[in-house]
Design brief:
single chain; 327 residues; alpha/beta; 8-stranded parallel beta sheet
């Protein structure tokens, strides 16, 4: 609980290293999910007191530039860009981020040493997403400002270690000195409280924000998430880049290929091109790739991004009061 943080005397504000680092009201960060996290979602989360992220992984440079301009027009609060380092056009993305003076960048899926110094030299705060204590230390050595430790409950691309958030957060906290953000399986204030008690100083929520009005994900995809039950997602494509998928016909094809020990080339052929766009953005629930976390089984409605932030924070706040009254 060393880095937990503290409320003001009137309980109208909360402060810890994450809120100070990003200059936000609540230590709640929206995941930069591909095909879901455009300027509308990012600005809505930031306006609500959290930290909104534009998901650059599914954007050409010209599209990213458009979203940066619109996000700056829609909010005067800090926002950031989620930048998967394995995607093409990474140099152009970085140039745009610097050009438009984006204050915060979350990097993932690559070596944090590659871009951290350049970004920080331009006054940008950098966080990097990891799935193990080993890589958390590499991030700290690379000079990042914060680490996101993501358990394998998470949606989208994931770690091969399959370490749960419950195990990962205290393990990373024990070796890390810089601020720590928890991700994976966090969809409400209860999970936020658990993560903070385990040593996190903030939480990143992805799947819960997919089912918001402002998310650019297709309504078909959002509704399929609401129908999901426990066990309806599975971590797949481990021979390529592990990703948690909602079960559909595309999942069945991947599952069959992996059960039959088919080659990497065969899996790449099944994956093809633009499968994620087809499923999550265009709403093809049969042939599309549907990336979502295990917490999808707990989501029952499509609400606004502000409601997600407010509901999560109010529940966290109430739990804090309740636990202190019992002690």
């Amino acid at each position: 609980m060393k880095y937990f943080g503290h409320f003001s005397a009137d309980r109208n504000s909360f402060e810890n290293r994450i809120t100070q680092l990003f200059q936000i009201k609540y230590p709640i960060i929206q995941g930069g999910m591909i095909w879901a996290s455009g300027w509308k979602l990012a600005s809505a989360v930031s306006n609500a007191g959290g930290l909104g992220l534009i998901g650059a992984g599914s954007m050409y440079p010209s599209i990213l530039e458009e979203h940066l301009i619109k996000c700056k027009q829609a909010t005067d609060k800090p926002f950031g860009v989620n930048l998967p380092l394995l995607y093409p056009d990474i140099e152009k993305h970085v140039e745009l981020i610097i050009q438009y003076q984006v204050p915060i960048v979350f990097t993932s899926a690559g070596n944090p040493k590659t871009w951290t110094k350049l970004l920080k030299d331009n006054g940008i705060k950098v966080a990097h997403v990891v799935s193990s204590s080993k890589f958390a230390l590499k991030c700290q050595d690379a000079g990042v400002d914060a680490v996101v430790a993501e358990g394998f409950e998470a949606g989208g691309h994931n770690g091969r270690e399959e370490t749960t958030t419950m195990c990962l957060i205290p393990a990373v906290r024990d070796v890390l000195d810089i601020p720590l953000i928890a991700a994976g399986g966090i969809g409400d204030g209860r999970a936020m409280m658990a993560a903070m008690v385990l040593g996190a100083e903030g939480v990143q929520m992805g799947s819960r924000f997919v089912c918001t009005h402002e998310a650019s994900s297709h309504l078909n995809f959002k509704n399929s998430i609401l129908d999901a039950k426990e066990g309806d997602t599975e971590l797949m494509l481990k021979k390529l880049t592990p990703v948690r998928l909602l079960k559909n016909e595309f999942y069945n094809q991947v599952k069959s290929a992996e059960d039959n020990c088919e080659s990497i080339e065969s899996l790449k052929e099944i994956l093809g091109k633009a499968r994620a766009k087809k499923g999550m953005f265009e709403g093809n629930l049969v042939d599309g790739e549907l990336e979502i976390g295990q917490v999808s089984s707990m989501m029952q409605n499509i609400i606004s991004a502000k409601e997600v932030v407010d509901n999560t924070w109010n529940e966290f706040n109430s739990l804090f009061v309740s636990l202190n009254e019992r002690s």
